[in-house]
Specification:
41% helix; elongated; 5-stranded antiparallel β-sheet; two-stranded antiparallel sheet; 3 helices; alpha+beta
Length: 193
């Protein structure tokens, strides 16, 4: 009797492991395909990390740690952009870095805050969320690094919602910036690669 229970338990474990593994493979294929189709320069895409999928409880719910991380990222991006443009008084429209960062910030704000303005209460299990760290090249020719957060359906077949968070370093010298009067604080920050 004990051996039968052991065999059943072993078989159940194998089935559970196989389903988890197949879910992770589905998610990796789905997010890579989505990234390739949605970026301006897919041939420059390099996926650095696909985090382990986490349960999603609605499309607007984030843990307190995730919220703190996201707000810190928003603060860093805004700080770098404001300092590079002298608080929007002297934007250099020919600076690929500044234009890339402004474009990423607008997409981040639209994707992130449109979901956060609604009800952020934890709802019933709705599927999966996964964070993908990648590098690519913007339409302005600037390389950048970002994290894309995905919300997927329960079967890992459909992207329901996504948004990007650019990753910037603050306080590091930026070798890509053009010196001059339009960049009074050259070296404020750079996109981390």
């Amino acid at each position: 009797m004990k051996s039968t229970k052991f065999v059943l338990l072993a078989m159940l474990s194998v089935v559970l492991l196989a389903s988890c593994q197949s879910r992770e493979i589905k998610i990796k294929k789905l997010v890579k395909s989505h990234l390739e189709q949605s970026l301006e320069n897919p041939r420059d895409l390099k996926v650095k990390e696909i985090a382990e999928p986490d349960s999603a409880f609605g499309l607007n719910y984030f843990t307190p740690q995730e919220q703190a991380y996201m707000l810190g990222t928003v603060t860093n991006v805004t700080k770098v952009l404001m300092e590079r443009t002298a608080y929007m008084t002297k934007p250099d429209l020919d600076d690929a870095y500044t234009m890339t960062l402004a474009d990423l910030e607008m997409r981040m704000s639209t994707g992130l805050f449109s979901g956060m303005l609604g009800d952020m209460k934890k709802g019933p299990w709705s599927g999966w969320k996964v964070r993908v760290t990648y590098t690519s090249k913007s339409k302005y020719g600037c390389k950048y690094k970002a994290q894309r957060w995905y919300f997927l359906d329960k079967d890992c077949q459909t992207v329901i919602r996504y948004f990007d968070l650019p990753i910037v370093g603050t306080g590091k010298k930026d070798k890509t910036a053009k010196p001059g009067k339009n960049n009074p604080k050259n070296g404020v920050g750079k996109i981390v690669l």
